[in-house]
Amino acid sequence: MFPQTMPSELEQRANRADEAQALEEDARLRNDIRLLGRILGDTVRDQEGAEVFDLVERIRQTSIRFHRDEDRAARRELESILDSMSTSETVRIVRAFSYFSHLANIAEDQNNIRQMRARSNARGAPRAGVLAETLEHAKAAGFSAPDLRKFFKDALVSPVLTAHPTEVRRKSTMDREMEIAMLLDRRERVQLTAEEAEAGDEQLRRAVLTLWQTNLLRRTKLTVLDEVTNGLAFYDYTFLHEVPRLICALEDRLDADDEAAGEIASFLKMGSWIGGDRDGNPFVTADVMRGTLRLQSSRIIQFYLEELHALGAELSIAAHLADVSEDLRALAERSPDTSPHRSGEPYRLAVSGIYARLTATAHKLEVEISRKPVGEAAPYRTAQELKADLDVLHRSLLANNARVIARGRLRLLRRAVDCFGFHLARLDIRQNSAVHERTVAELLDAATPGMSYLALTEDARVALLASELRNTRPLISKFVKYSEETLSELAVFQAAAEAHEKFGSDVIPQCIISMCKGMSDMLEVALLLKEVGLINPSGRSAINIVPLFETIEDLQACAGIMDRMLALHDYRRLVDSRGAVQEVMLGYSDSNKDGGFVTSGWELYKAEIGLVEVFERHGVRLRLFHGRGGSVGRGGGPSYDAIIAQPGGAVNGQIRITEQGEIISSKYSNAEVGRNNLEILAAATLEASLLHPRQHAPKHEYLTAMERLSELAFKAYRGLVYETDGFVDYFWASTVINEIATLNIGSRPASRKKTRAIEDLRAIPWVFSWAQCRLMLPGWFGFGSAVETWIEEHPEQGMPFLKELYQEWPFFRMLLSNMDMVLAKSSIAIASRYAELVPDANLREKIFGRIRREWHLSIETLFDITGHDRLLQSNPLLERSVRHRFPYLDPLNHVQVELLKEHRAQNPDEQVLRGIQLTINGISAGLRNTG
């Protein structure tokens, strides 16, 4: 990307300073880990006895020897120790190692916060991804403050929370962990007296003991509304405060360069699938969706009322000491507040009136709030009316020389209303295309005797559906008895229409079609939306129809499908009615399971290039929605790098990205970390849209090489997973896939159908299972053999060319960086113990032998291309993190293997299964991004 030059003396000094700071940060992290480990050790000794504590230490030391050297003697010793333990002892050992993983995560998070603060306070450039740095880059590139305001006017950055079941922690344990984090933070930031420090240490010990005595596992299965409630907690932790603060801080930076500035648009909008995602989840019904919207609305209105209560306390401005505007005076006069104590305080009277109207609004929307009104008032019809009243306060303060007051709580509340409305988050509704197909078929066949919709060709279906979109006749008849599935689907669409009437069109702006394979899949949804009034026959739509392309085949076809859709007059009218913006969702998880890590990444990249070209030709704005998981096997990895690596034109100012499972809590349970992650999304969107050259692809020879590498990796992956006899048996025997289903971590079933076939297994348990046995196979398999064959085929280009790809092409660099992270968390030594769970020795050696060879080859190839001699060499922070946790993570794997043997030998002791579940929890915590 840039020519290699020798660093200057100034740069060398800066590098040495960075190294010194890194060493100091590493020492502080180790100190925190030792502190928490010591407290946990004392807790184990006090609660379980010295013998259990000594056993924990023996296992840890032996595990270190085995992991470091694949020491056979250490392996035999470890097996001897584990074999000699009773089930009760084993469960206690598992709890100790699991809790250490959780505590190590807390220490790491606090260390990351320390680093963020140090970098933001240091002179010089802040860390890549921070919004301030990106704004400076934009300014240097010639973009003025008005240019940037114009950009944000049309921009959209939307993290979308999903309930994908990869978060194994209970909220109770998360709450305790947040308490421990708060106490560590206080030790760091507050100058304590000796007495305060002693009291703080006792608080820390108390919190760790409480955590030890708290159930790690859920005893009951989550309902969908439980998942909604858990998701709402992150609004309290982060979003309600940090989303408005981030936008206001950005506004201030732009104001500094633009004296005639106004407020920027609220480009950061939260989205959610929790309570609206019906794909494979029969528990998401119309009533559940209504309950979801009530819970969301209740939370945001309660927040507004709390802020208004605090604002009223703050705005004690007396009329005889400060002038007020006529609008403010009129607003105060309309207030039902008759308290004589506030008679001379117009701002407080105005706030009381707003408060009264908001409580009436909650009653109208049928949502629960805990606060009582000060009197009767008319409800707000829209959130914009609430914002208009708050604007009256704002303008009055500005007009009367009280700008600094207007910039306080009032400013953040006004921004929050603009961001969250009365609905809090934009709820997507999602269903599988096959369900839509069956529903529409039943409606059309009932309305047209002799019709067999399912027997029609694709072209015939498209023609029929397009004509039905123009038809004013309703298809649904109260005289027809429809199937339970059809009634359920129609009820959800009807509930969506009711929600639009109640909360406004922002409440459910997207309808997503899973496994979209053709034009008819999109037109079927349009027809269902027309039946409930969200689309009218004149071609206006109140909702975006979003195809989700998930498999390798669908990714290859998606540009052609969208080309034909945008050329279809009846569909193009709908797009134009939505501002000529069409959203397309790309699925990372299923494409990976279908074709492997390399091919999935490459086909996604090519699909984006194709879509960009199609949309430019049709004059429609493309908005991509990235369905990424937490693990690399499901499209995970650093968000900033992922956005920057998109092909030119693929971001274009608007992006939506799923935040799933354990990634939600790791990113957003701490406000400071959460703010940083939101900034990263905004900064990357700005940089990818404005600062990257407008080119769709790098050199042609790069694309040609990547195409061949993908073909070879695809062949290797498919050859193992789908074409090797006995692979399904190997997978089910050598992983915890069966046992994962016993965990109460989500409301959705693990498989689409009741079969053992890999095709029917959901991507989450597929990836989760490989993570547990420490192979991480979906995140790397096929790469090593693909490179080996490609070099044999292209000796004239060979390794130097691949090194050039790595240096010059962000996409290829990101691909290898993510694989580097996955391989660093894997352990072929530990994986070999899981392979022994396969009863057929020949099958075991045949498949694990192939996996072991590919693992070694992928690492060697990675080193050759990057020039590194160890994994994570370019990411020392993560390298240290992995190194710190292995001594505590590895024993959990060893214990899990022994418990799996017991469980599968039909041991009736219920503690055996509980022990397995605890190991799953602990390993997941230790690896962090597992699904």
Average pLDDT confidence is: 88
Spatially, the strands of the biggest sheet line up as 3-2-1-9-8-7-6-5-4
The percent range for helix content is 55-70%
How many helices? The count is 37
Gap between N and C termini:
33 Å
Which structural class fits the helix and strand makeup? Answer: mainly alpha
Structure commentary:
This protein has 931 residues and is mainly α. Helices cover 64% and strands 5% of the residues. The chain has a nine-stranded parallel sheet.
What's the SSE blueprint?
Layout lengths: L8 H40 L1 H20 L2 H13 L2 H35 L9 H10 L4 H10 L1 E7 L8 H19 L4 H19 L11 H32 L15 E2 L13 H29 L11 H8 L12 H19 L18 H17 L3 H4 L2 H12 L5 E2 L1 E4 H15 L10 H13 L13 H20 L6 E5 L4 H13 L12 E6 L2 H16 L1 H9 L3 E7 L1 H7 L1 H22 L2 E7 L11 H6 L9 E7 L1 H7 L2 H21 L8 H22 L5 H8 L2 H4 L22 H10 L10 H11 L4 H11 L1 H16 L2 H8 L5 H26 L9 H29 L5 H18 L4
Parallel strand pairs: 1-2, 1-9, 2-3, 4-5, 5-6, 6-7, 7-8, 8-9
Helix pairs in contact: 1-2, 1-4, 1-8, 2-3, 2-4, 2-36, 4-7, 4-36, 4-37, 5-26, 7-8, 9-10, 9-15, 9-26, 10-12, 10-15, 10-18, 11-12, 11-13, 12-13, 13-15, 16-18, 16-19, 17-19, 20-23, 22-23, 22-30, 23-27, 27-31, 31-35, 32-33, 36-37
Features:
single chain, mainly alpha, 9-stranded parallel β-sheet, 9 strands, disordered N terminus
Summarize, please:
By secondary structure, the chain is mainly alpha-helical. A nine-stranded parallel beta sheet has the order 3-2-1-9-8-7-6-5-4.
